[in-house]
Amino acid sequence: MDPANQPGMIAGQLQADGYAILHEALPASVIEQLQKDLDDDFAATPFGTGMFYGERTKRFGRLLRRSAATQCLVLHPVIQDVVSQILGPWCDRIQLNTTQAISVHPGAPSQLPHRDQDMWQADFGKREYLVNVMWPLTSFTERNGGTRIWPQSHGCHALSAFADADFISPELSPGSALLFLGSTLHGAGENASAQERRGIVIGYSLGWLKPYENPWLAYPPEIAKTFPPALSALAGYVQHRPNLGNFEGQCPSVLLGDYKGEPLGAIDALRPDQMQQASAFAHGRSG
Which domains does the chain have, with CATH numbers? Predict the structure, then answer.
């Protein structure tokens, strides 16, 4: 592996600058398959409504059921390692926040610079809530509206103002990936070219947050049953201790087995410290 693509190196760059680039993360054949699988969806999807989503921009989600090749992006081992290093200290489990395809058409103006963590009303500057990964389906350039990044605008600096012109527009080829934190100021650029700029964003967030994309509607049990266990867990079919996201008091992964609707008994899913407290209380009561 290229030393620049080592998980520790990428995580360090994210923590220092708010963004990092994973070069040649996937073979071109995977991206070509995604393009082929999603081409009809790009054609059929209407343009957005509103100044934020963009009226010359198309967006759609549920990518894991639109193209099996999306699994290569979501479960990329280096990215999984990096996300765990960044988010792992703040949660019991990591979840998928979104799988979204984006097409910025010629004439699209630049997007409002924003931080994706602002979708939650949280205590910013002390922890990270989200890691995004932008995968180009077509080459990203400043001219065609490639993602703009404001370096070092993350973390505690997210509480400060940044000049509109202080961005960079990394040039990216299909197969590479742009990682940036939920606290990093960013936005799509103006597409001054004659071609669409297409990309996919895969977002990972702390497992105790409400995700941007409703996973159980995007991937109901009959779809999630076809996923490998690691993917179904990311898509919401697992509990986050203590007892968050349960189904009838049990892990929602029960829906991916032979469950027929019979009554279930609730089963504790507690953190170790909570288990100790419950055990000490039970022993003290019995004594």
Answer: 3-234 (2.60.120.620), 252-286 (no CATH)
